[in-house]
Amino acid sequence: MMEVHDGAELCFPQLLNTSCRKPLISWSEVVFLHFLLSTVPALTAALNLLVIISIFHFRQLHQPTNLLLLSLSVSDFIVGLVFMPGEILRKTSCWFLGDIMCSLYKYIITLSLSASLGNMVLISVDRHVAICDPLHYPTRVTVGRTRVCIVLCWISSNLYSSFLLDNDQNQKDKYIYCFGKCVFNIEYTLIIVDVVVNFIAPVTIIVVLYVRVFVVAVSQARAMRSHITAVTLQHSVTVTSRKSELKAARTLGVLVAVFLMCFCPYYCVSFAGPNILRTSYLTFTLCLYCFNSCLNPLIYALFYPWFRRAVKLIVTLQILQPGSREANVL
C-alpha cells in the first residue's frame, strides 16, 4: 500500500493512496522550463513548417536530398509540436490527460525521434553516394527510390515505437502505479538495447560515411583548384556541378555534426543506469535533444539560398498565386 501524503502535495487529493505526488522542482527550473514552453516549441514548429511548405510546394525542390530534408522536418515539426510541450508538462506539473493520451504521447515521441535518426542516416548515405560515386548518383539515387526509403524509414520507426510501447504496457505491473504521472516503464536491459539500436549503430554509420565523404571532398577540392585554369567550357560546367555537390556536403555535414552534439548527451546519460535517469541532468539533455529540431531550419536558412527565397515567397503569400509552384527558387 502506498504511503498517505498531505493532500496539498498530491495530484489528486481525493484519491489519497493512489495519487502521485506533485513534481518537486526548483523555482529556477520552473522559470526555465516555462520559458522553453512559451518560445522554443512554437519557434520549432513554425520554422519546420516553413521547410515543409517550401519543399512540398515548389517543384524545383523535388530532389532526392530535399525530400530527405522534408522528411526530417516532419519529424522535427512533431518534436516541436508534441515532444517539447509534453516533456515540460511532465516535469513541471501532474499529468491530467489520462492513460490513453499518455500512451499516445509516448508512441508519437518515440516515433518522431526514431524517424529523425533514420532520416539522418539516409542523408549521410545520400551525400556519400553523391560525393564518392558521382557518376552513378543520378541513376542510383532517384526521387522514386528516395520516397521508398523515406516510407521504409517511417514504417520501421513505427514498428520500433510500437515495440517499445508494448514493452512499456507489459512493465506496468512491475511498478507501483499512481494517478497523475506519465512515465516510461521500460526495463533497464531494453534501455541498453535502445542505446545500441538508436545510438551506437546509426551514429557509427553516420560518422563512418561522413569521414569518407570529407576525405573524398578534400581530394576533389584540391583537384579542382589545380586544374581550374585549364578546363574547357564543358568541363567548367562539370566543375560548377561538383562545387555545388561539395557545398551541399559541407552544409549537410554541419547539420549532422549539430545533430550529434545535441543527440549524444542523452544517450550517454542512459549508460549511467536508472538512477541518473531521474535527475535534472536528464531534463537538460532532453532539452538539448529537442533543441536540435529548432536548429535544423536555422542551418538551412544560413546555408541554403533557396530556403531564404522560398520563405520570402511564403510569408508574402505569393505562393497563393497561380503558377507559383513553378517559381525559380534555386
Q: Summary?
A:
Pfam families: 7tm_1. The chain has 9 helices and no strands. The protein has 330 residues and is an all-alpha fold.
Description:
This protein starts with 26 loop residues before the first helix and ends in a 15-residue tail after the last helix. It has helices spanning 27-57, 64-92, 98-132, 137-140, 143-171, 188-227, 233-270, 280-303, 305-315. Mean pLDDT is 78; it is low at 1-7 and 232-237. With 330 residues, it is mostly helical. The protein has nine helices and no strands. The protein has a single domain, classed as Rhodopsin 7-helix transmembrane proteins (Rhopdopsin 7-helix transmembrane proteins).
Question: What oligomeric state do these chains adopt?
Answer: single chain
Q: What gap, in angstroms, lies between the N and C termini?
A: 66 Å
Strand content: under 5%
Q: What's the gyration radius in Å?
A: 23 Å
How many strands in all? 0
Question: Under the CATH scheme, which class?
Answer: Mainly Alpha
Major beta sheet summary: none
Structural class: mainly alpha
At CATH level 3, the topology is Rhopdopsin 7-helix transmembrane proteins
Task: Enumerate how many helices there are, as a single number.
Answer: 9
**Mean pLDDT across all residues, rounded?**
78
Query: How does the overall form come out from the CA principal axes?
Result: globular
Helix/strand order, N-terminal first: HHHHHHHHH
Return residue spans where pLDDT drops below 50 for at least 5 consecutive residues: 1-7, 232-237
CATH architecture: Up-down Bundle
Q: Could you give me the name of the CATH homologous superfamily?
A: Rhodopsin 7-helix transmembrane proteins
- Count structural domains: 1
Subcellular location: Cell membrane
Protein name: Trace amine-associated receptor 13c
Membrane topology: Multi-pass membrane protein
Transmembrane segments: 31-55, 67-84, 104-125, 146-165, 199-218, 252-273, 279-303
